[in-house]
């Protein structure tokens, strides 16, 4: 593949991922290559390369054509186990490598999330996502960042119909603060432990909502 074609495939992949995570393409929805080419204004080759790449990453499957992958209930436990492992690993590395500027950025995000009652759920989710992405960035490990993105997508596909209570949101914000404190202190063990606890708290709320 020529460099220009590779760049185009990467761009198509990025745009397609945004369409999936943004809800334009839903789990189980079929994707027609010709329609996607027209929609993205891209040629058949970069679109096909992007689709193959996303299949390898677990976003898509081929069932007599391309389909946005769905998660079955039996995978829920594995999804949360993977998220706990990845979040713990990124927090551990971030405690070793985070810069003062990155710490300041995470601190500012925590401040913006409080008090949570004045924020819309969409805004709170956005800030929460930025906080966790900030930890991934501070870990400075590209492969681990890919694993983190993959577990985010798997969680998104659950389409969890649950609203967190105010007490649960406060507890989540307290855990954010504990993670930040561990990162600032360079305490790798505590950073990993609290990051894992953060995921397990979410699991304890979500699984009953899915009637598992």
TrEMBL record:
Short name of any one Pfam family annotated for the protein: GntR
Keyword hit for Oxidoreductase: no
UniProt keyword Cytoplasm present: no
SMART domains assigned to the protein according to its UniProt record, in alphabetical order: FCD, HTH_GNTR
CDD domains associated with the record: WHTH_GntR
Alphabetized InterPro entries for the sequence: GntR_C, TF_FadR/GntR_C, Tscrpt_reg_HTH_GntR, WH-like_DNA-bd_sf, WH_DNA-bd_sf
Domain of life from the UniProt record: Bacteria
Keyword terms of this UniProt record: DNA-binding, Transcription, Transcription regulation
Annotated HTH gntR-type domain residues: 6-75
Stretches assigned to coiled coil: none
Name this polypeptide is given: GntR family transcriptional regulator
Species, as recorded: Ancylobacter oerskovii
């Amino acid at each position: 593949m020529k460099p220009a074609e590779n760049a185009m495939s990467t761009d198509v992949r990025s745009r397609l991922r945004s369409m999936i995570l943004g809800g334009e393409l839903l789990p189980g929805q079929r994707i027609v290559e010709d329609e996607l080419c027209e929609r993205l204004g891209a040629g058949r080759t970069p679109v096909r390369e992007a689709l193959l790449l996303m299949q390898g990453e677990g976003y898509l499957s081929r069932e007599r054509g391309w389909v946005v992958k769905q998660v079955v209930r039996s995978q829920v436990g594995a999804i949360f186990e993977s998220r706990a492992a990845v979040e713990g690993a990124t927090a551990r590395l971030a405690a070793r490598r985070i810069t003062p500027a990155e710490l300041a950025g995470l601190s500012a995000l925590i401040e913006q999330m409080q008090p949570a009652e004045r924020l819309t759920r969409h805004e709170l989710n956005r800030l929460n996502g930025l906080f966790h992405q900030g930890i991934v960035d501070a870990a400075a490990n590209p492969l681990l960042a890919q694993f983190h993105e993959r577990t985010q997508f798997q969680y998104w596909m659950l389409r969890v119909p649950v609203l967190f209570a105010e007490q649960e949101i406060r507890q989540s914000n307290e855990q954010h603060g504990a993670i930040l404190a561990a990162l600032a202190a360079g305490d790798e063990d505590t950073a990993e432990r609290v990051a894992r606890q953060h995921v397990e708290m979410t699991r304890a709320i979500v699984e009953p909502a899915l009637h598992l």
